[in-house]
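Example S7 (structure tokens).
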């Protein structure tokens, strides 16, 4: 068993920890925007292909105090880099430096570590591997906070949100990891319909279809950095892939999406088709204000990511959220609804009381994932009568 750190978005740490537990990882500990865990090679391979809410899976190589560039160089050179890759591979260093003025900038710190790696290879082999900042075989993460330095090798490479199914060029697509996190935070696991009536390029719908059928999200992804590690086991990778595929299941309900932009619906269909889940979806070029209740399948969940109002006037965004509330109340009784938004004032116009408010970030924007229970008529009346009964109950006089 080796120690790893899986990074994620703020608010998804416990979701990721649960995913890791289901994969069989051990000694799982949620951190801030990350989860520490231990896994064997088979579990590491499965984690890269199967985790829905991980961004990178890092293997820590060193963690020590460094107070200047010379100490960073020494720490970097003490790591046995030739254990991990040879000088035929390309590599890149992703550096973050915070509250450490001795290192001037992340670029300066990355250059010192690069010198240490290059010098080690040159000392032992007479040549060094080349840097490739855009598409490296090997990615190395350097993090310096004050005088604490950690150096890790990235098993994933590019972020795991790059599933490999996206085909279009939508201007502002939702991050796949965030979409999967919203689904896993909801109470929907494929036990009813899934609806996104502001679906854009269909990320929530595609991730929902992958979740409902238990398809590993990164089976289509062409490359992972660990494939360039010296200890990569091709047969074990194939075994991990086959085991994940054997756990797929059927989905008995429907996934509905709509958007007022025809181009968005076209892109959503291409992405779903690329992911192999288009047959589970019904997509329409439709303004949500003209929605009708889905006729097929059991009630399930409505999950949407509406505009937050950066390009709309306050009166326009308020009206939009009021119309969203009307659509939910008129057409989706019996469903649960989940709305992600950074605009707290606009969400008040929905006209429903949230059952839950979960903090999340969509890029730099601090958001809330709001949960609403949309009762059908009988449940609504029962709940209303109960509330009236509680309000009419005699209250104890204050002494």
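Recovered sequence:
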């Amino acid at each position: 068993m080796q120690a790893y750190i899986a990074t994620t978005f703020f608010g998804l740490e416990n979701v990721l920890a649960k995913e890791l537990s289901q994969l069989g990882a051990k000694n799982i500990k949620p951190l801030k925007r990350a989860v520490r865990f231990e896994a064997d090679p088979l579990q590491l391979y499965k984690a890269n292909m199967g985790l829905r809410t991980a961004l990178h899976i890092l293997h820590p190589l060193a963690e020590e105090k460094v107070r200047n560039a010379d100490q960073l160089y020494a720490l970097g050179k003490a790591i046995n880099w030739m254990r991990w890759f040879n000088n035929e591979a390309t590599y890149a260093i992703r550096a973050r430096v915070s509250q450490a003025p001795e290192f001037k900038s992340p670029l300066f710190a990355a250059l010192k570590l690069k010198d240490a790696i290059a010098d080690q290879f040159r000392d032992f082999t007479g040549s060094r591997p080349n840097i490739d900042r855009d598409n490296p075989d090997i990615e190395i993460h350097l993090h310096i906070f004050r005088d604490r330095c950690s150096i890790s090798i990235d098993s994933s490479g590019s972020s795991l949100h790059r599933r490999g199914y996206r085909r279009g060029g939508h201007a502002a697509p939702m991050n796949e990891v965030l979409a999967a996190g919203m689904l896993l935070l909801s109470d929907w696991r494929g036990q009813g319909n899934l609806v996104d009536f502001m679906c854009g390029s269909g990320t929530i719908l595609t991730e929902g279809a992958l979740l409902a059928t238990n398809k590993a999200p990164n089976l289509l992804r062409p490359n992972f950095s660990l494939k360039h590690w010296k200890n990569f086991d091709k047969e074990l990778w194939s075994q991990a892939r086959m085991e994940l595929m054997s756990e797929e299941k059927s989905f008995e309900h429907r996934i509905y999406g709509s958007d007022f932009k025809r181009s968005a619906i076209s892109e959503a269909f291409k992405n779903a088709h690329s992911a192999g889940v288009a047959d589970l979806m019904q997509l329409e070029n439709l303004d949500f204000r003209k929605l009708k209740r889905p006729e097929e399948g059991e009630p399930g969940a409505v999950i949407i990511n509406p505009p937050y109002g950066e390009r709309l006037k306050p009166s326009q965004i308020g009206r939009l959220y009021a119309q969203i509330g009307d659509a939910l109340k008129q057409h989706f009784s019996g469903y649960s609804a989940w709305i992600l938004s950074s605009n707290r004032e606009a969400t008040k116009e929905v006209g429903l009381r949230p059952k839950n408010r979960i903090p999340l970030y969509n890029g730099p924007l601090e958001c809330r994932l709001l949960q609403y229970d949309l009762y059908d008529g009988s449940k609504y009346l029962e709940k209303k009568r109960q509330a009236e009964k509680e309000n009419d109950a005699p209250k104890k006089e204050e002494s």
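Notes on this example. Residues 378-382 have pLDDT under 50 and may be disordered.
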